[in-house]
Amino acid sequence: MVRKSMQFVIALAIVTLPVLCRAQAQPLAVGNYIESARAEMQADRTKLVGAGMNLSDKDGATFWPIYRSYQYERSTLDDHRAAVIKEYAVKYSTLNDADAKAMAERMLDCESDLATLKKKYFKKFNAALPALTVAKFFQLEHRIDLLMDMKVESSLPPLFTAPEANTETGPPVDTQTN
């Protein structure tokens, strides 16, 4: 079990490192980078799931059709999320309160929609497969999502820029005691 986990971690690192190194070596436009990262992860996601799940032939015959349906529905949600991220990257330097609020609401909607989709497929997977297999899949899916988020987030501009006047002193300190 430990050996298979180590093999999976190594495979994940092999898949992830080239994309991260390319992102640092030659900065792409954010939109291009997001699309490039998404395409690479989508291509590798199925391989990672296959390696990480290590399904028997019987469970695989049940799992893969449900998984393909899940991925198809999820790709639409991921498209919406990518659109918000691209919009943020484009408008970052001129972002106003109304745009920031609208984007935040859209991102929250994306997260909510993804949670709803995962719950829907959690039920479908559980109806067809052992609970341990389903839990393992969703844990693996979460880890892949974290890697994808890390790639995308590292390419975005910062959320804020520290005011020049405060760069020497750092953040304000609360002097009141409780």
Can you tell me about this structure?
By secondary structure, the chain is mainly alpha-helical. The chain has one domain. It is built from 5 helices and no strands. It has helices at residues 2-25, 30-53, 57-91, 97-128, 131-155. Helix 3 (57-91) runs antiparallel to helix 4. It is elongated. It starts with a helix and ends in a 23-residue tail after the last helix.
**Helix share bin:** over 70%
- What is the total domain count? 1
Share in β-strands: under 5%
Kindly name the structural category.
Answer: mainly alpha
Distance between the termini: 49 Å
Q: What integer value in Å does the Rg equal? A: 20 Å
- Mean pLDDT metric: 77
Number of helices: 5
Query: What's the helix-strand series?
Result: HHHHH
Main sheet characteristics: none
Which spans of ≥5 residues are poorly predicted at pLDDT below 50? 12-28, 162-169
Question: Number of DSSP strands?
Answer: 0
Shape: elongated
SSE blueprint:
Layout: H1 2-25, H2 30-53, H3 57-91, H4 97-128, H5 131-155
Helix pairs in contact: 1-2, 2-3, 2-5, 3-4
What keywords describe this structure?
178 residues, mainly alpha
Q: Short summary of the structure?
A:
With 178 residues, the chain is mainly alpha-helical. It has five helices and no strands. The N and C termini lie far apart (49 Å).
